[in-house]
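Box 3.1 A note on notation
Throughout this textbook, protein chains are presented in two layers. The first layer is the amino acid sequence; the second is a token string describing backbone geometry. Keep the layers aligned when reading.
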Amino acid sequence: MKSPSHFVRQGGPWLEPWGGNAAPPQWQTIDNFYQWEYTRSVKQTMLLKLAPTTEQARVLLDTMHTFNEAANYVASVAWASKTADKFRLQKVVYGELRTTYKLAAQLAIRCISKASEAYKRDKSVKPIFRPEGAVVYDPRIMNFKGIDTVSLLTLSGRVLVPFRFGVYQQSRMDAIKGQADLLYRKGVFYLAVTLEVPTPPPDEVTDTLGVDLGIINLATDSEGETFSGEAVEKNRKRHQSLRQRLQKQGTKSARKHLKKLSGKEARFKKNTNHVISKRIVQKAQANQQAIAIEELRHIRSRTEARLRHSQRARHSSWSFGQLRQFLSYKAALAGVPLHTVDPRNTSRTCSVCGHCAKENRKSQASFRKSQASFVCQACGYSDNADRNAAINISKAVVMQPIVASENQRNNRRFGEG
């Protein structure tokens, strides 16, 4: 199962080509034969807080420790045999999981899947699972009893564990589908369940809202609205300084403080990405616009070469992938078409005449408080550099559709447009 975060499957829109006489040739990435799957639902994850008795908590923890110990055994076999094939691994390890580790049949299958999928993600290292790592459950070994109890299979048989929920969780209980993860965080058990949430058909649109991603301004749209990264940078520096001081002290209280600090900065970043993505999607929905964002693949390798060493920590600390993920699922739930475009030269190209030159934005790598300006050397047009780039993104040819309206999907399926 995916980690507790939101995601949306691929499927999506195409966009009108570059406005004007011709598009800059480096943007002509038309994927007429691109195949995709469109679904009228998105998958999300919801946490349910379990309230086991003392004895149930002991049984769950024993099961978790044994499950992850067994997963480490499977991972060592996968590593030694250089295979991530679940069926091949099952022939080798299944008997050992049943006899030595005393796992029930379906828990053994889930254990093999967890180890093989981890090894498949990166075959250069042997996966190692923490004793209190997640236990993967599926409908065969987990089912809900009533509105506030879940039945979970353990080493000691099934246990009926009550859970707590609020209005938000209660309204989404009917959407629970598929696998779930049993988690243990700071002495508390959670069940991370998968939700399959239906989405409305994406709206037909006549305009596109381009979004440029950056460091000084985390995001700037083609209408000029910016989302500053100043508060984020202050938060990052404060946490970095505090961590360094505590690490130097090395005392018991300092280590305790470091543990408490763990995850705090990540939660701040996650909340900021939620706020930004929600605002962008709401704006596009209100104005009947599609959303165009930069293709983020290899963004760090593309941009770090242009940065000074002192700027790289700030650049690499932000989770642009998470921001795109949030935009994707929020756009799908709101019925807003969304796609990616090639970001190359969007910051150097004039959004009015199409002239592309490095000299148009000489201060591109500058991190001064006043954001760099764009001045076209051909026609003299000037604008905020991020806004100019966002306008170019809004006009660029689609690279990868993510969420599309019915007419747009049909046009692309038959190679029209």
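The chain has a mean pLDDT of 80. DSSP finds twelve helices and 15 strands in the chain.
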